Amino acid sequence: MLNLFSLRRLSWGYSTNGQEKVELESLRSELACVEEREAHLKAQLQHADEILRSARFSGYLYIRTRWTALPGEPPPLDDADVDDWLPRFVVLNGPCIFFYLLSTDLSPQDSTLLSDIVEVGSLPSLARESDETWHSFYILTRQGLRYECSSISEVQVDSWLKVLMTDIKPGSETKVSNGSGDV
């Protein structure tokens, strides 16, 4: 049994056998890959920690985006049957809302300034195929982009609405809708 762990069985130096050199280089390459992956994961963890520490509000929501019709355009097709809700990690940090694919992502997929928000409001609850009720709200930007957000947690949706209604800059264009159900 001790022969299995003897130093003679491990080749650390150069040998006349080229196979041992190849194996050693392969192990060194694998070790470098593992160290690189570890450094990347540490960077992700540190970034997520910084985001969560500095964020005023964050959490996972299901998101879908829509564009409002321009003047003179026909109204958008009713796409209620299309299931295009995607889970996103949403962070309210400073004057921005950031949309990440995952909480560990280093950069957001999308963002919008609070000053660009012209309307925030509730949407009717959705009944999902798994008999879950999703509570929803929307965020409309001055560019016409509408973020529809939902969660199975009514408390989470109410918290997001409260924070957004408090934080958006009330101006002449900004409207706060309280459950009118406009889609």
Automatic annotation (TrEMBL):
User: rRNA-binding: is it a keyword of this entry?
Assistant: no
Q: Where is the PH domain?
A: 55-171
Assigned keywords, A-Z? Coiled coil
Signal sequence coordinates: none
Where does the chain cross the membrane? none
| CDD domains given in the database record | PH
Q: This chain belongs to which protein, by name?
A: PH domain-containing protein
Q: Which organism is it from?
A: Salix purpurea
